[in-house]
Amino acid sequence: MPLDLSDESQYDRARLRQWARGRARSAGVDRRDLLRLFAAGAAAGSLGLGAAGSAGAAAEGTAAAAGSPARSGAAVATPPGIVKPLPPELFTVRGTNAETNFASLRGTGPLTPVDRFFVRNHTSTPRIEASGWRLSVWGDALSGGPVEFSYDRLRSLPAVERTLFVECAGNGRSFYATQQGQQVTGTAWTLGAIGVARWRGARLSDVLRRAGVTRAAVDVLPRGLDDEVVTNGVNLGRVRRPLPVSKALDDVILAYEMNGEPLPPDHGGPVRVVVPSWIGISSIKWVGDVEVSAEPLYSPWNTDLYRLFGPGQPPQGSAPLTRQTLKSAFELEAGATLPVHRTRLLTGRSWSGAAPVHRVDVSTDGGARWQRARLHDAPRRGGWVRWSLPWTPRATGPAALLARATDAAGRSQPATAAHNTQGYLFDAVVRHPVTVV
Ligand SMILES: Nc1nc2c(c(=O)[nH]1)N[C@H]1C(S)=C(S)[C@@H](COP(=O)(O)O)O[C@H]1N2
Ligand SMILES: [Mo]
Fold this sequence. Notes:
- By secondary structure, this protein is of the alpha+beta class.
- It has 2 domains: 8-56 and 118-305, Alpha-Beta Complex (Sulfite Oxidase, Chain A, domain 2); 327-436, Immunoglobulin-like (Sandwich), CATH 2.60.40.650.
- It has 7 helices and 23 strands.
- The strands form 6 sheets. A 5-stranded mixed sheet has the order 4-3-14-7-10. Strands 5, 6, 11, 12 and 13 form a 5-stranded antiparallel sheet that branches.
- The model is unreliable at 1-8 and 38-76 (pLDDT under 50).
- Ligand MTE binds next to loops.
- Residues 120, 168-170, 280-281 line the site of molybdenum atom.
């Protein structure tokens, strides 16, 4: 019976077997380096990317979440690699990245304005003119040679528009340390490594068909035009992560517009990949070429990174991560002070990669009692819902606000998230501290 490669774990097992037999190519990384990385991954459960390295930009930075509380943007210099302004009221800068301050979304619409959309850069934002940009589609699963698409040709294809989140797999990572006392490596995001935008672009499937994709295709590998990523002395090459051909032909977009404007440089302009509901690394920015392969492909971003390592996981880690999990966040500063006996409209947002969020419950007493919040948006897959609940605090002192999302697939946020060494897919209910005065 042929393997169903759209089944994610089956797909992964098949790929690992093929790779072990030496059939799969290592997608541009020296084979010995990959083996070394594999060995490091098996031994330490991670690449050791948490260690201070000379090029700490890789793998979501160098700061271990444990013991590095969120610092205010005002105290940190703007990273030279990001083009747009990063005022401290809108962003918290973390290494080469900028996290959206959730409080700054209060009063904004369903889309994250570009001026406050988080930025996650492995290195720095390249400046690429649309007029000189080309997308090269190549590989042994095409019926002919490479096919090039100019920006104008891409724009002449049928356009699709969708409202979708891009969310880093490590969003919420800092709560493994602060709520669960567990050490993880990587950028210590709170909940602001997510944004929702209206993306407009061409279907990747249209591009692949015009390039002559054949039935032999297994993996599709988009690669960014930003600098190569060097970490701990190993050059990982350009940012790239294979997609199973089933996903690539399903709903993936080559986006050239974000919220009705040409895609800005920091978010992948002139053209980026947007992979609905999947972890952020899938959505390759500044895409320059796409390999279409009849063999499974590997890159550090689907072998040592973006899998779950740790207790209960196989030595090579889980299957590569795909869909995002579910989360909720208040549009309020952590540690905000609120006046007693004064009614305040608590607002926030919830989202899930599995299914639309159709219910949000809020607790204002640390989780003892829950009330259903009012939803302000129609639940949509791949997006988020805004919600609100009025609260009149009756006593002064510290309090914890909690929000818990439930999606149409029946998943609710748990009390604790499953630990993994790189701190991916945090899904637990977050305790949002406030002080009533
Ligand atoms: N070429 C390239 N694509 C990339 C990255 C990158 O550094 N280079 N970062 C990835 C990661 S880890 C995330 S979470 C998202 C972030 O997208 P944003 O910066 O537009 O918010 O882009 C992804 N695509
Ligand atoms: Mo990410």
